[in-house]
């Protein structure tokens, strides 16, 4: 994968952690000594953000010896990044690069687990990533084999109940209005019941997003709308995890929408920084 975070963003990360130099390394007088640094997985994980981590090391003055790409699944104890250079440079990049890889790989690993739990089904992650971390979150989702559900409010039509609370006309009318105003877009409607799902599908919604409805309800919606031309895409959302992905797939769903990869512990990476 390519580097998604531009140099300016990586410079800003380094500046946050080392705004006025590394006091400890400088005071000990070891900054110029030759050093070597390695990153290894403490547990099985799917890598993400390794390209950005390597670039951080380079920006700090280190030299990358090897790095495995984002999307690579590795076992515990496998070394995936190695660098050398002045000790001061490697100390400067160490913690920022480690933390970036840990958080991104945590997202990628959880995304991959959901993807593997439901073979042949598209897993789409929502925009509910930590504010300010969209670029890295998107890369991590893709590294895990999932796709993005929507990148933001600007490019998709997704009608929530919070939108419908302000509408006075019937849903046939506003779905038709959306079709006229944005004819190249799919119309996605979030619903909270089987009855709502069927009604909006009959009114012409392209995608029915089921908010926290169980697999049995998803099956009921699919059965009730399969005769429509074309039938809508029925997509469970809210509460979709690796634990229930297979059940939704068995119910006939071919798209699962989830925020679960964004919420959980980071991956655990061991860093060894020592004299070369």
How would you summarize the topology of this molecule?
Layout: H1 7-17, H2 23-28, E1 34-41, E2 45-46, H3 50-60, E3 63-67, E4 73-74, E5 79-86, H4 87-117, E6 122-125, H5 134-143, E7 147-148, E8 157-159, H6 161-164, H7 171-181, E9 187-191, H8 194-202, E10 207-211, H9 215-225, E11 233-237, H10 245-250, E12 255-258, E13 269-275
Parallel strand pairs: 6-7, 6-12, 8-9, 9-10, 10-11
Antiparallel strand pairs: 1-5, 1-13, 2-4, 3-5
Helix pairs in contact: 1-3, 3-4, 4-5, 8-9
Describe this structure in words.
- The protein has 276 residues and is an alpha/beta fold.
- It has two domains: 7-114 and 264-275, Aldehyde Oxidoreductase, domain 3, CATH 3.90.1170.20; 120-262, Aldolase class I (TIM Barrel), CATH 3.20.20.
- The protein is 40% helix and 22% strand.
- The chain is built from ten helices and 13 strands.
- The protein has helices at residues 7-17, 23-28, 50-60, 87-117, 134-143, 161-164, 171-181, 194-202, 215-225, 245-250, and strands spanning 34-41, 45-46, 63-67, 73-74, 79-86, 122-125, 147-148, 157-159, 187-191, 207-211, 233-237, 255-258, 269-275.
- The strands form four sheets. The chain has a four-stranded antiparallel beta sheet with strand order 3-5-1-13, with helices on one face. It has a four-stranded parallel beta sheet with strand order 8-9-10-11. Strands 7-6-12 form a three-stranded parallel beta sheet.
- Helix 9 links the parallel strand 10 and strand 11 (233-237).
- Helix 1 crosses helix 3 and helix 3 (50-60) runs antiparallel to helix 4 (87-117).
- The radius of gyration is 23 Å and the shape is elongated.
- The two termini are 29 Å apart.
